[in-house]
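Lecture 7 notes: from sequence to structure.
We start with the chain below.
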Amino acid sequence: MMAPVPDHSAASDDQIEIVGAGPAGLVCAIVLAKANRRVTVREWHKDVGHRFHDDFQGLENWTDAQDVLDELAAVGIAADLDHRGITEGVVFDSRATAHRVHDSKPLFYLLRRGNAVGTLDRALLDQAQAAGVEVRFNDRVTATAGNMILAGGPRRADIIAVGYVFDTAMPDGAWLAFGPELAPKGYAYLLVNEGRGTVASCIFTGFRDQAKHLAATVSYFERHAGLQMQNARGFGGFGNVRLPRTAMQGGKPVIGEHAGFQDALAGFGLRYAMRTGQLAAESLVRGTDYSRAWRQSLQPGLSAGVVNRFMFNRTGARGLDYLIGKLGANDTRSVLATAYRLSFTKRLVLPLARFRYREPLKDRSCDHVVCDCVWCQHGLHDPSGV
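Predicted structure tokens for the same chain:
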């Protein structure tokens, strides 16, 4: 049962509207509500998690020394959702040789997305409402006004994921594979936990051929990971990647994928989304500079991700195999953490990487006219442009 909205006696400065009920917007709302601000979240869809299908996703746990669940707990976000810390998995090289990756701490947390009980989206909604946040669904925002934070989700498709969620009798596990036939400039993954699974191709180009890449991905994991699917249901998703200048629009903070906060290499954006929600909330509560805060907290890792993407696009099979072997031969979390540090060498490469990294994210294979790619099927965004 939703907790009653607190009887605030604060001035209108405490009344804040958030556009969008994704993880960024809901974390922002929870932090604000716990600071005794009156918060309304306005979502133009009928429920949370409208872009997702109860599919498994990963909440990465390697870009910061602090465990991501501890980071969330420190700002009042409880991990009261179905989740599992994944400490090992398998990465296949170009010859389909399996390399075990592992660490003593979780590499990522496996969780579900959508509107079902136990998903990240439903858990954050419940916490927001319990904190006194008013959440309005089917509420389309047509203009910005007053104290407003923009969290409307991706505004274009730089990455698409297409796959299946399914039931299975196969053992739990996490598998990752690369190859242009599986996922051009991207990767394919298989995640299984307690009789449920998600298999997908995460594609950075070649959107029109998504069905072909997905079929190749399923066949690959059947051969090399023993994939078994029952009651398979198709799904699609998309992501928006860019390095924002200020993450402000019309004087309003922009958070999550609305601003383009996303890892340019692998498309992991959940941690960035929730942290920007926290930073935007704290900027209103404390009167601090939001742009300065996200730059200090996130820009080094985001920039390193751009360099990583630049290098990945230019690495052949031998180079990729070398990197996969390095992941398997060491504590994987520490290797990944090093990859997302903006070293002196990466700072030197960054100007060229920033200049070139937009190129592979422009999918010239798809003009989104007479097309059935994921973006055209599901990517209709808020026409208000907010």
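Points to note: Residues 290-313 form the longest helix (24 residues). The longest strand covers residues 230-239.
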